[in-house]
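Morning F.,

Quick status update on the modeling queue. The single chain you submitted on Monday has been processed. Sequence for confirmation:
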Amino acid sequence: MIQTDSGGMVTAQAVGYRVLLPLFMVMSICSLLPRIVQADSGINVRSLPRIAIIIDDLGNVSSTGRRVAGLDWPVAVSVLPHTPYAAQIAKMAHESGKEVMLHLPLQPVRESVPSGIGTIRLETSRAQLNRILQADLDSVPYIVGVNNHMGSLITQHPGHMRWLMSELKAHDNLFFVDSYTSKSSVALQLAREQGIPATRRDVFLDNETSAPAIDMEFRRLKELARQRGTAVGIGHPNLVTISYLERELPKLRQEGFRLVPISDLIAEQSEGL
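Structure tokens below.
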């Protein structure tokens, strides 16, 4: 028995209950906190603005291709056809859970840099286009979608774009991303007319390959995602861009964004059409 301040007596067992009961309550609340946080996080995650990122121009350099394929986030890998490391990079990206795209060469207005093997040009006939496209698709394994490499000239021409989208439609389950190298592009419109899941690029991350310039464009991408709910960025496999993404992508969730596969973003956009 223990004497109280008022002179009464209580048992040691009662004292133990009084001490242990608050402790059990605290422990119970602490055990529920992870579930409360997880549930709250789940609600918030679904409502976050979505960003999708594609890295273009892969296939010519093994080291940068491996580094992009090894990123821990769902960045899409777009591979040029008939390049020395196309199959190797596509395989690595696929095995790491990334979406592999064909970076389809299309004729630009000014070809200061060669657009590469497998380019579809204005003088390309429909039969030639079919053969070129098939050869390009066959040269890169695991393809789930296509976006244009260059193409500022030919994406303005409804005839060739209608041919191209008709052929892409014949290949089940391919989506299309208009890299939007010309403001006069009709590629997205004609892809959707053919019933192909499609979207277009909002921001080029690295037209200027300096860290401050890339940071400015990345901030613009995030702002567009806040305003619209979704945004698509395209970057290239230079060391400045890769290093920037390795540093910044892990921060997106904390900043209130979701980085999603490009196919998921296209599917979500299509629901609103």
